[in-house]
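Slide 14.
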Amino acid sequence: MSEKNLWGSIPKIDVKPPVVILREQAAMLGQMTDNVLEGRVRQVMAAPGQDLSYILDIIAPALDRYYYSVLQVDHKVAPFYPLQVTLQISDKTFVGRDEAEFVDILSRFLSSEQVQQVIASLLVQSTALEQAA
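Slide 15: predicted structure.
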């Protein structure tokens, strides 16, 4: 008896996964700060079959790897959208119905005055400690 494919035809998905977008932004933070600060994306462990959850952190290695959680993204395994973005600073939640809306939410929040103040504070403290060493 020959083997038969019972999976059918696996569809191609032409959407960038949200975790990839988050990791790109995490890497960009390191590039922008000459790695004085780092971005990190960590997965929140959930029970099998539940939604996927990721947290974007800002890490200050010079401050004993202090980290500040910026936001959390939750989405189903399939499809990715709509997804939910929870801002850790304010506990506000936004829904991104597609990749463009998700990127817009990230753009508005990551460039917000609140997040910029956190980045500036961590940068000045980290730089001062590095210069004092």
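Speaker note: Residues 113-132 form the longest helix (20 residues).
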